[in-house]
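Re: [help] complex structure
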Amino acid sequence: MVPIAYYLILAAILFCIGIAAFLIKRNVITIFMSIELMLNAVNLTFVAFAHMWHQVSGQIFVFFVMVVAAAEAAVGLAIIIALFRARQTLNVDNVNLMKN
Amino acid sequence: MQFNTNLLWLIPTLPFAGFLLNGTLGRKLPRAAVTAIALLFTLAPAVIVAQLWLFMKSAGAPLSLSVASRPWIAVTGFQVNFAFAVDHLTLIMLGVVTGVGFLIHIYSAGYMAHEEGYWRFFAYLNLFMFFMLVLVLSSSFLLLFVGWEGVGLASYLLIGFYFTKDSAANAGKKAFIVNRIGDFGFLLAMFLIIAHFGSLNFADVFTKVSATPMTGGFLTAICLLLVLGATGKSAQIPLYIWLPDAMEGPTPVSALIHAATMVTAGIYMVARCHTLFDRSPYALGVIAIIGAATALMAATIGMVQHDIKRVLAYSTVSQLGYMFMACGVGAYSAGIFHLMTHAFFKALLFLAAGSVIHALSGEQDMRVMGGLRKRIPVTFWTMTMGVFAIAGLPPLAAFFSKDEILYQTFLWDNPLAKLLWAVGMFTAFLTSFYMFRLWFKTFFGAPRFDEHEVHVHESPAVMTIPLILLAILSIVGGWVGVPLAFGGHNEFEHFLDPVFNPTTHIVEHVATRNAEPILAAASVLTALLGLYFAWLFYYKKPGTAATLAERIKPVYNLLDHKYWVDEIYGRFIVAPLFIVSRYVLGGLIDTGIVQGSAAVATGTTRGAGSIVRRMQSGNIRSYAGWLAFGAAAVIAIVLFTH
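Output below.
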C-alpha cells in the first residue's frame, strides 16, 4: 500500500509545476496546458483521498472536474484559434489591446 | 373714505415690478417702452400715497395702519414678519420719496436720453425706489435693515453706472465699503435690541422702553451703534467721505439718492427710534455735536470746491448735519421738516446743476462757466429759487425749516446749546456764501468757456418741467411749518405730534416766542451777509477771492484738500488694512496655512498612491503570481497556527 503522503507530494509537485509554467510561459497553449496540469494535480488528491477513505464521492468530483476541463478545453481552443487567426501570434504579451 | 390696507403692499412692489421688467427685458425694448415702464411703476405708488393722504385727512384720528405677512423668521420666543406700518412720519417720507422720486424719474428721461445703458439706469432707479419704500414702510428693525442695505446696493450700482470709468467704479466701492462700516453698527445694535427686548418690532421695543423706567449703559450702547449706522448712511463725521465721491454717478442719481432720499435714511431712522434716543441724553448729545461739526466742516470745504456737483455734495453733507443736530437736541419734527424742504430744494439744485452741465455738454467745472443767465433762463430762474431757498431767505422753504432747527437748538436744555447755535448760525452764513458763489460763478459775469466750441442750449421740457415743479415746492414747501411767532400754526410739527411724544416739545412760552423773531432776523442777516460777500468776491471784484486765498494759503490749502481726511484715512486705516490683508491674511493664513495644509494632504495621498500603484500593474501574470502567493500564505497561516 502506497502511503497517502506520496500521492499528496506528487500532486503538490504537479501543482507547483503548473503554477510556475502559468507564470513563466508566454505561449497561450502552454499556459492552457499548465492550467490542465493544476486541475489534474487536484484530481489526483481527490482520487487518493477517495481510495484512502473508501468513499466514492471523491471520484465523482473528479468526473465533474474532467467534464468542466473538457468544456473549457473546447471553448479555450476555439478562442486560441480565433486569436491566432486575428493576430498571427500566440504570445500573450502581444495580446494587450485592452490594456490601458 | 376707505383705504384698503393691502394696497400698502403695492407701494414698494410696483417699482420692484418695474425693475424686474426693465432689468430682464429692457435691453430689447425701445427706449420709449423703457421710459413708460419706469415712469408708470413710479407714478402708481405716488397715486397710492396720495390716496393715503386723502384717507388720513378724512379719518381725522391719528393715522396708524399696518399690514403683516405670515412669519418670516420664527424661532422660540422671537418672531419677525414682513410687516409694514404707516404713521404720520412714514407718510411724510412716502410723500417725499414717491413725489420727488417721480419728478426725478421724469427728468432722467430727458437727461439720460442719449446715454448707453438707458434701460439699466431705469432698472436700477426703480430698484432703488423699491428698497427706499421698504425702508420707510417697515415696522421692524430687520425689515428696515433690508431696505437700508438695499438702497446701499442701488446707490453702489448707480454711482458706478459709468463703470468703464475707473473713478466711478472706485467711488461706488468707496460708498459701499464706508456704508458697510455703518451697517456693522446697525447690526450690532439689532443684536443688542434682541438680547434686551427679545423683539425687533418697533412697536414692541418702544412699548417696552416706555413702560419701564429703563436707563443705563445698554440703551446708550444701542443708541450709539444706531448713530454709527446713521453716520454711514447720512454721510456724517466720521463716515461722510463717500458722499462727495458719489457725485461720479449721473446727476439725477445725485439728486434722488444722494440728496433727497437715501442719505436722509439715517435721520429718518433716528427720528423713528426717538423713544430709544430720548432715554439716552448722552447719545443725543453725541448726535447734536456730530451734526453741528459736520455741518460746519462740510460747509467750509464746500466754499473752495470748483466742481458744481461737489459744491452741492458738501452742501448736502452740511444740511444733513443740520438735521442731525435737530434730532440731537430733541427737535425731531424740525429735523424731519428740514429733511422735507431739503429734499425739494436740493433735488432742484442738483437737477438744475444737471441742466447746466447738459447745456455745456458735460462741463462741471465752475471755473469755465459764467454768463449763463440769459442763455438758459428756465434753469437760471429755477436754480435761483433753489439757491435763495437753501440760503434761508424768507419766505422760501429752508428759511422756516432751518430757523426752526436753530431756534430749537438755541432753546436746548444743555450748556452746549448756545455754542451749537452759534455754529449753526455761522454755517448758515457759509451756506449762503458758497451757494451764492456757485450762483454768481455759473450764471453771471462773462462766459469763461469757448463760445465757438460749446453750443449752449436750454434743456428740453421733460427736464425743465420737473425743475419748475420743484422750484414751486422749494418756495411753498416751508409754509406748512410757519411758527407761531410769525402768525402761523406750526402745522408741520403738530402733524407729527402723534409720532413724537408731544412732551418732548419745547414749550413755547412767551419769553421764547419773543426770541424767535430776533433769531430769525439774525439768520436772515447772516444769509444776506453771505450774499454780500459772494457778490463782492465773485461779481464786483472777481479777483478778490484769489488774492484772499493767496494771503491765507495754509487755510486755503487745508480746505482745498478737504482737511486731508481722505489722506489720513488712507494712511491710518486703509493702508494698514491692505498690509494686514496682503501679508498676514493673504500671505500667512491663505498661502501658508490654508494652501499649505491642502498641499500636505494632497502630497501624502499622492505619495502613498505612487507606492501602492505598483500592485496594479495591469499585468495578468503578476496578478496570478500575487494570487498564488496569497493562497500559499493562507495555507501557511492555517498550517502553522495550529
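The longest helix of chain B spans residues 565-612.
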